Amino acid sequence: MRSTLLVVVLVVACVMVTPAVAHHGAATFDTGKEITLKGVVTEWIWANPHCFLKFDAKDETGTVRQWAVETQNPVSMTARGWSRSAFKVGDEVTVKLEPVKNGAPVGRILSVLLPNGQTLVAVGPQPAATPAQ
Amino acid sequence: MPLHVKRLTLVTAVVSMLSSAALAQTWNSPGLSEEEIKTMPPGGPAPRRDLTGIWDAGFAGIGIAEQEAEREAARAPFTPLGEQLVQRNKPGNGPRLAPVAEINDPLSTLGDPSGFPRLVTYELRPLQIVQTPNQVLMLYMFEKRYRVIWTDGRALPQNPDPRWYGYSVGRWEDDYTFVVETVGMDDRTWLDNSGDPHSTDLRVEERYRRVNQTTLELTVVISDPQVYTKPWMMRNRLPLRLMPSGTDLMEMIPSASEAQAYQQVISSQAK
Questions:
Q1: Domain ranges of chain A
Q2: Which of A25, B30, B43, B235 has a CA 20 to 30 Å removed from the CA of A48?
Q3: CATH superfamily of A2-121
Q4: Is B125 in Cβ contact with A73 (below 8 Å)?
């Protein structure tokens, strides 16, 4: 009985760290770690199963690293107010992200501050209104 | 202006206003918001033998984390063959979650079709249901895929060639409950994003119950004696809500080239 309860608790704990909508869970990411980088957009890929943003940002030694950070899919991101035209090459952005555990310049986006001062949020509860185009 | 003409003009104006409000035309909709799902009024009694419309279950239709625990609890134990098959699958979700670089989900890594029943057990985004005299057609936003459910009284095929989406027949159990039986599914597909396997002997029962004007409930039962020791329920009265009839849905197509780009840019670096 106790072992059954333990299994249930472990299963629940496992899925609790999984994002609400994703094609993969959180095992690869350093869950809870947040880093914020200022960089320049090199590409914005609007695609399934995940959209991803590529940008160049300097690390603490001044070396430019080429980052690739993912979001959810276009449908989920549209519901959050994101779009295929959310970024242009050359945009200066501030990206808050959760990196992968292995130290590679890869992660998933938590939010992005755009050049116009708007912040696009990638995680947390879905906004109440569904934007229509 | 004569009175009857005035009345007709007024009625026409009201009907026009009501229908344009009801249509609520949009382009490229991602589906209902969670708020709209929760607060939608019942909208009157269910019409008889009618499932037509655009339906959306919101987050509950896609495999959200809470459902994975529920599903794992509902899943029947694997047979010895099922135990073997499940070891091959490296899913990105669920209790057997693999690291991103090891995922071998044929849908997300190869761009293979989701197949049936995964299209309704995990990736149930908005869908439109159309009824003809001898078919019920289900048109899914996910993959922009369709299924034909024959309602002309034909029997299911014996020993069918497996197909990604199987062979389906449907019947009205009563005026508000439509039951679909499906066989002949390709065993390369998974039942869900958690990598639950199936054989070509899989048989799926879907029950669609029109509860009221704006609510349809879906129950899905899996029977596959080769892989599972008993039948089990993957959906238990999942509520779907009616969307405005003028809704134009987004595309959500997991293309092979996009899956490849994700592998090259993200997965390969995440090892």
A1: 2-121
A2: B235
A3: Nucleic acid-binding proteins (2.40.50.140)
A4: no
